[in-house]
Design goal:
- By secondary structure, the chain is of the alpha+beta class.
- The protein has 2 domains: 2-40, no CATH class; 44-116, Copper binding periplasmic protein CusF (OB fold (Dihydrolipoamide Acetyltransferase, E2P)), CATH 2.40.50.320.
- It contains 1 helix and 7 strands, in the order αβββββββ.
- The longest helix has 18 residues, at 2-19.
- It is globular and about 30 Å long.
Length: 118
C-alpha cells in the first residue's frame, strides 16, 4: 500500500512540474495562517540574458550568445533567432548585452521581446 501511495505522489509531482504551476504564498493579515496556492506561470514570461553576435536586418534574424532558455528547456549556447518584429533590430549591434524573451512559434525559435541590458 505504501508503494502505491509513493507512486501516486511521485506521479502527481511529475505532472505538476510539467504544467508550469508553482506554489506561491498569499499575503494575509498578522495572525492569520498563510496558505500556499497553485499559480500558473506563463512560459513566455522568462527573460534571458544574452550578447548580440550578429544582426541580419535583411532576413529579420539575430544571432545571440545566450544563457539557458528555461521556458524552452534549452541550455546556453549561440544560435540564430527570427524576430517577431523588425523594429527589435533597430539600434542593435554586435557585442550589445541584451535581455530577451524567445518562444517556439510556427516559424521557429523567435525573439518576441528584447531590451538592451542596463
Amino acid at each position: 500500500m505504501k508503494s502505491k501511495i509513493n507512486f501516486v505522489l511521485a506521479a502527481a509531482i511529475f505532472w505538476t512540474s510539467g504544467t508550469g504551476l508553482v506554489l506561491a504564498a498569499i499575503d494575509t493579515p498578522a495572525g492569520t495562517p498563510n496558505k500556499a496556492v497553485a499559480t500558473p506561470v506563463a512560459a513566455s514570461a522568462q527573460w534571458t540574458a544574452g550578447e548580440v553576435r550578429k544582426v541580419d536586418t535583411e532576413q529579420g534574424r539575430l544571432t545571440i550568445k545566450h544563457e539557458a532558455l528555461l521556458n524552452l528547456d534549452m541550455p546556453g549556447m549561440t544560435m540564430v533567432f527570427r524576430v517577431l518584429d523588425d523594429k527589435l533590430l533597430q539600434n542593435l549591434k554586435q557585442g550589445d548585452k541584451i535581455m530577451f524573451r524567445a518562444e517556439k512559434l510556427d516559424a521557429g525559435f523567435t525573439v518576441v521581446k528584447l531590451e538592451q541590458a542596463k
